[in-house]
Amino acid sequence: MTAAVTFADVLVAADRIRGLVHSTPVLRSSTIDAELGATVFFKCENLQKVGAFKARGATNAIFSLDPETAAAGVVTHSSGNHGQAVAYAAAMRSIPAWVVMPDDASPVKAEAVAGYGATVVRCPRAERETTARRLADETGATLVHPFDDPAVIAGQGTAALELLEQVDGLDVLVAPVGGGGLLSGTAIAASAIAPEVSIVGAEPAAADDAFRSMLSGTRQPAVPHPVTMCDGLLTALGELTFPILLRHGVSVVLVEEEAVAAACTTFLSTMKIVVEPSGATVLAAMRSHPDRFAGRRVGAIVSGGNTDLAWLRG
Amino acid sequence: MTAAVTFADVLVAADRIRGLVHSTPVLRSSTIDAELGATVFFKCENLQKVGAFKARGATNAIFSLDPETAAAGVVTHSSGNHGQAVAYAAAMRSIPAWVVMPDDASPVKAEAVAGYGATVVRCPRAERETTARRLADETGATLVHPFDDPAVIAGQGTAALELLEQVDGLDVLVAPVGGGGLLSGTAIAASAIAPEVSIVGAEPAAADDAFRSMLSGTRQPAVPHPVTMCDGLLTALGELTFPILLRHGVSVVLVEEEAVAAACTTFLSTMKIVVEPSGATVLAAMRSHPDRFAGRRVGAIVSGGNTDLAWLRG
Predict the structure, then answer these.
(1) Is B78 one of the annotated active-site residues of the chain?
(2) Do residues B171 and B197 make contact, with C-beta atoms less than 8 angstroms apart?
(3) Which three-class secondary structure state does DSSP give residue A171?
(4) What is the C-alpha to C-alpha distance for residues A84 and A76, in angstroms, rounded to an integer?
(5) For chain B, how are helix, strand and coil distributed in percent, rounded to 5?
(6) How far apart are CA A208 and CA A231, in angstroms?
(7) What is the ipTM of this complex?
(8) Contact check, Cβ <8 Å, B47/A271
(9) What is the phi/psi pair of residue B214, to 5°?
């Protein structure tokens, strides 16, 4: 039996990370409400530390370590927001961090991680996991998985916890789904506070493994080489996250790339916020599946804002 | 004697516009704090209704009208944020609005105003004021000046009022200055709540009439045809706003265009928010005059987010 994650874990996480991450604002747009015929509350994790909700989970995981374990440092493999989040949280705790990145990851992302004082370790893309494990063995550092870790899931659940404290009477919560850390944390928090709220995951149609996993009841592998701008949603559900989503009756809806790009542009031009494609899936989902949201009070977790704006120029 | 604007007027305005405009979030950036050696609280009026603080003043002015006067509608001349704000507030009060715009104003801006149900009236650029006055005479509509109106100034002061309720112990408040509506409202609110706070206006060097007005103690006319991307800060101080700024010992600092463009980019890439050049002057000011802000707790009013992002592509 793998470690269960409970609502109590989310509450403890919220206490642990308070002051280390932002309590992010909830923004509204009457233009978008009118378009959707819904009342939408955007939980802006793009305005979170490191520009993504990942700061919550990584901070909770790293501040959960006992002092001796923590002193040996932490390691992860991620070229995305989780890598930055681990680097940030390790810096906050003043412990060493190693972030394994593939040789072809952008220099900008490596610089962001190094900017927090972490050591960037380059390796061939196929050797990321083994490199991270080897580093952990050699240094005694603790591996911090991007989503399949109870402390990470509990930390991600604090976004929904905050949102449910900020807004009353929600009918639906929608969050992006990649590995399922954010979505499973959201389900745990919501089911405890507001069990009547239905939970919806937004997933790129080009990387639809979570959609098929939930339909079939069997965890599906990641789509190989998916063509999607949602670079934060490429991974498959985890051993821990998948059963949580099943148990809470979470449903997943698919969004096309054009809808994601349009949603990014709407966030920028109408709401004046920068949202990365993975985060814009929530608006794309509401537009693409209007029957699921019309007439309802919707909490939408805008997961991150780290983007080179290629969708703007393209 | 022109009508004085008091702190009581700001408090009444705050009550009057509550629920009609957003209480905007205060955002922070540890990256920017580290760069400036200051503790900066960004009051995000770019996330306000119509994308700018102008919604506050226009809403207060329009909801201050007695029912009979209001029924005849309102008129203004503005191709910028104030035009949208008047259109928005008139729509909220369900009264007619006419917004006079020069023939060469962008269709996008005219569409935004028309989108709120206001009537856009085109005329040659030189005839905007006379056209607005004629419309007021013909229709009985009330002219709502973009800044030199006590109700507008009191409304703009609610941004600082909110910020001072959200953040304790500020040493400095910095806000952009064009006609001086926002800056004078800020001075009135701050001097009543926190008289120890110094008030700084940020002005483009290319349109430095406020800077020269404050230095000389005599109101200077607007710089003719200024070359600046800060399209919201072209006008000179008003008959009402100038004495308020003088009385409160407000100082004005100048910023160069390059610094404004760089600040826009920092807001976008580091803070994940869209800020128009006029609003980015506050960050440019902190960078260009570090001695005024280093070591201090600074409230910076980010005035608006309505931009075509030309500074990003340029």
Answers:
(1) no
(2) yes
(3) coil
(4) 10
(5) 50, 15, 35
(6) 13
(7) 0.93
(8) yes
(9) -70, -35
- A149, two tokens: 């870790």
Among candidate residues B64, B78, B79, B303, the one labeled active-site is B79
- Tell me the per-residue pLDDT of A120-149, one tens digit each, with 9 for 90 and over: 999 998 899 999 999 999 999 999 999 999
What token pair was written down for B17?
Answer: 């516009």
Interface test with A, best of B266, B272, B307 (most A CBs within 10 A): B272
Separation between Cα atoms, residue A21 and residue A16, nearest integer Å: 10
Residues of A labelled as active-site residues: 54, 79
Contacts of B271 in chain A (CB under 8 A): 47
Contacts of A190 by beta carbon, 8 Å cutoff, 6+ apart = A160, A164, A173, A197, A199
- For residue A73, give both structure tokens: 């440092």
CB contact under 8 A, B28 and A22: yes
If 0-12 CB within 10 Å is exposed, 13-18 middle and 19+ buried, where does residue A243 land? Answer: middle
**Chain B contact for A46 (CB, 8 A cutoff):** yes
Is the CB of residue B97 less than 8 Å from the CB of residue B112? no
How far does the CA of residue B249 sit from the closest CA of chain A (Å)? Answer: 33
Contact of B312 with chain A, judged by CB distance below 8 Å, is answered with yes
Q: Distance between CA atoms of A84 and A49, rounded to whole angstroms? A: 10
Q: Tell whether pTM > 0.90.
A: yes
In this predicted model, what pLDDT tens digit does every residue of B17-68 receive, in sequence order?
A: 999 999 999 999 999 999 999 999 999 999 999 999 999 999 999 999 999 9
Backbone angles phi, psi at B156, to 5 degrees: -65, -30
